[in-house]
Amino acid sequence: MKYLATRPGRFEFIHTPKHGSWLNLVKCAFSKMARTFLRHLRVTSKEELKERVLQGIAEINEQPVPFRWRKFDLELS
After folding, report:
1. In tens digits, what is the pLDDT along the chain, a chain of 77 residues?
2. What is the DSSP string of 6-63?
């Protein structure tokens, strides 16, 4: 904390709640890839894998679906 105090304005703390994290979006994207175009995929090289991943992303982007955040209220009244 002392070191950071000597560097004012260099770092900015941004709190991202767990239910709204960009990491959740990344996990969802990889999950969708694994369940759709990468399922049962056999490739012979990294180049072929890269090509298939980029092709799959292009297909997903042809008909984009907005991500809708859902916050679950776990408070029991």
Report:
1. 788 788 888 877 766 666 666 777 888 888 988 898 888 889 899 999 999 999 999 998 999 887 776 665 555 54
2. TSTTT-------GGG-HHHHHHHHHHHHHHTTTTT---SSHHHHHHHHHHHHHHHHHS
